[in-house]
Every structure is written in C-alpha cells, then in structure tokens.
Amino acid sequence: MGWNQHRRTYGPAYHSEWHFDEPKVCSEILRPHVIPYAGAIGDSFVFQDDNARPHRARLVENMLEAETIQRMEWPACSPDLNPIEHVWDMLGRRIAARPRPPATVRDLEIALLEEWNSIPQSLIDNLITSMANRCAAVLVVRRDHTPY
Fold this sequence. Notes:
The protein is an all-alpha fold. 51% of the residues lie in helices and 3% in strands.
C-alpha cells in the first residue's frame, strides 16, 4: 500500500512496486497529491507524515519549505498517535478474517484494496477527530503508553 490522504474523507489507496526514497516521495507523493491539496485547503493545511527516513530527507524538507507547507511536529516512536496505524491494523484483521486467505501477492493486493474501499467514512472521521485527545494523552503520560 502506498500513501493515502487523511482529510475529512479519505483518498484512494494505491499499490507501489518500488521502495519510497526521497526523490519518489517528492515526485510521486508531494507534487501530484500533497502540494495541490495544500493549495486547495489554504493556510489551515497541516501536513502529517511520520519520521521515516525518506520523509525527513533534505530534499523533502526543502520542497515542503519552498511550498510553505506547514508540517505537524511528530515525536519519535509514536505509532499510537498516527491514525493510519489503526487503519493498517483494521485492514490486517479484516484480511485475516476472510474465509479464504490471499494465496499470492496479487491476491493480497486485491484484498487490501477491497477492504480499503469498504472502510466506513465514520471510522475515518472518528480517527481524525480523536487526534487532539491522542496528543493530550501523550502529554499527560509523559512518554508512557496511552489508551490508544
């Protein structure tokens, strides 16, 4: 699975055969998806990614800075904060619950796309609106585990 968009709705998933390195992040994610979307939202747009090495590369940082895209600060080792991690977990559970597990990589790709497309919008809304509570919980527990 590749990158996806968290907004009040969620965007289509796509599968990528290549590894995400810095140039690919810029050419396949930022230019065609993030920059146009940020422009449509305006000054209130905040970009959320994680601390993966390609996301923090100078090339990526420079492109975001040149486009004046504000990036959400992201603490290290914080998957419980990232709403998409809960979506990945749900997708994994849905795939495991299928009566016939995918037998090939292609079968898995098809199953993931089917499950992705069946995610209820209400689940995405709940994950997005819970971000403030997630951030507050991290501050309260001071680097310990949160209820998320």
